Please model this.
Amino acid sequence: MTTFQPDTVPGQPPPPDSVPPRDSTTNAPTSVARLNDTIRGFVDRWGSVWVEGEITSWNARGGNVFGRMKDLATDATISFRIWSSTLQRLPKDLKVGDHVIACVKADYFPRTGDFSFSVSAMRHVGLGDQLEKLELLRATLRKEGLFDASRKQPVPFLPHLIGLITGENSDAEKDVHRNAELRWPHVNIRTKHAAVQGDRCVPETIAALKALDADPDVDVIIIARGGGDPQTLLGFSDERLLRAVAAASTPVVSAIGHENDHPLLDDVADLRASTPTDAAKRVVPDVSEQRALVGQLRARLTGRFTQRISHDIAQLEQLRSRPVLRSPEGLLTGRAQETWVLVNRGRDIVDRRVADSDRRTRELRASLRALSPLATLTRGYAIAHLANGVIVREASQAPAGAGLLVTLAEGTIAARSEGEVAEPPAASTSGGPN
Model:
């Protein structure tokens, strides 16, 4: 860099643009433009260099690519640009997570003061260690069922208390509060602040999660961050945090605010939101929409009731117009005549059956009398029994002196046998035997 002593006016400070940066003083400061031009001149003398690293960001805009590359052993990163003319010569499958080597040249933009590297060549070396570990962890968790939809808990329709885990004074916290209060003014949010990147991210997030999950008043928990490149989102793919979220009894919403890539927390959480704003919209119902919905349901209910009542009134009017309801006595008169006919017919049938039964009874009684031994006895006959009740049928059964019981038509008499006789006594003039 060339240095020189500018021309000055005695007693006055020299013009700032005329002072080189190295020779600037409090009374003679240099300008921002001259400083940037000086830096650019210094950077332009650097040559190209081959660098090895892992792609952590890859954004295509207007045919060009703007991304970041991370050191394989430390957290050091650089920004790079690939112009469209160079991009055409590179492999088509370059993406976030690739382990690459690239030929880069430092580039400084004096107008904005941005420092970046222009890529003239880039090729694959292998999958980056971090992305490889994430893919292995993803496969393990999927095999264990932590990504299954069946284990995810539904988010309540209107949570009484929302737990929020996010960075302190972050845009994500403001977005969640603002959008939730716009949708439901009386929403209650309990916020636990935690680091959203770096070494403190995982332990602080887990501690906040356990505290909110243990609170019985919390209905849903939102873990929010305002986006970032995959390198800064690695904490939300940590296995410790993922298993803590899977074990939580309260539904967890992941709202990391990412685009091209997403952490494993999105797959384990019960609900995935694209941004903190989207999380507030999906967790908190819109009071105006709910009022409109209630109005619509009331209108539909009123319409259905009105339609049903009108239909029932029309049916009643139709029934009332029928002859049977207009003059019901006509129906009673017809039924009374029919009843009278049926009663008379039943009476005649009963009388005939009673007469037939009476006649049959008399016939049976006459037959019974004709066959009864009593009818024979009334004609003058008698039945002789021995003392043991045996009926005497032959004279030899009653020898002389044997006691007999003689049954007549009316009564019984005792007798004693005189033995067998040659001829029976002559019949009396009364006509029956003695």
Q: What stands out?
A: The first strand starts at residue 49 and ends at 61. The CA atoms of residues 34 and 80 lie 25 Å apart.
